[in-house]
Amino acid sequence: MIEAEIEHSLARLEALARLMDGAFVLPGTDIRLGLDALIGLIPGVGDAISAAISSYLIWEARRLGIPKWLMARMFANIAMDTVIGAIPVAGDVFDVMFRANVKNRRHLEKKGYRASRGGGPVIDGEYTRVR
């Protein structure tokens, strides 16, 4: 992948993580939730749909060349979010508190993908590979 593709890929991952785990604030609180928690409210299929969307993060990270052990860790986050999230009521609370997509994005940052720091202002969501 060329550098521009990597930046676009990471920007998509950042946007997806925010959308799924923290796009909205519950009125009157500081509690953030995303589409993961809202989709999870759909009985029977909500958590499976959410897992499918979250799996895109792993697919995109695989394209970036992450190691298999990191891919397994990211998959474990999504699996835990899906399995526990399927429990009625308690799982919905868990979906709000456990941010699998944000955790997976942080795994990428630990691998060496992080926000651009040099050459001007950092655009929100713009990421680049640190070499």
Topology:
Layout: H1 3-22, E1 24-25, E2 32-33, H2 35-39, H3 46-63, H4 68-85, H5 90-97, H6 100-111, E3 113-115, E4 127-129
Antiparallel strand pairs: 1-2, 3-4
Q: Kindly name the structural category.
A: mainly alpha
Shape: globular
**Annotation, overall tally of beta strands:** 4
* Average of pLDDT: 79
The gyration radius over C-alpha positions equals 15 Å
What is the H-and-E element order?
Answer: HEEHHHHHEE
**Poorly predicted residue ranges:** 117-131
Residue share in β-strands: 5-15%
Instruction: Quickly count the helices.
Output: 6
State the share of residues found in helices, binned by percent.
55-70%
Distance between the termini: 14 Å
Tally of structural domains: 1
For the report, how would you describe the main beta sheet? 2 strands, antiparallel
**What strand line-up does the widest sheet have?**
1-2
Give a quick summary of the entry.
Helix content is 62%, strand content 8%. With 131 residues, it is mainly alpha-helical. It starts with a helix and ends with a strand.
Polypeptide structure, described:
The protein is mostly helical. The protein has one domain. Helices cover 62% and strands 8% of the residues. It contains 6 helices and 4 strands. The protein has helices at 3-22, 35-39, 46-63, 68-85, 90-97, 100-111, and strands at 24-25, 32-33, 113-115, 127-129. The strands form 2 sheets. The chain has a two-stranded antiparallel sheet. Helix 3 (46-63) runs antiparallel to helix 4, helix 3 (46-63) packs parallel to helix 6 (100-111) and helix 4 (68-85) runs antiparallel to helix 6 (100-111). The longest helix has 20 residues, at 3-22. 30% of the residues are buried.
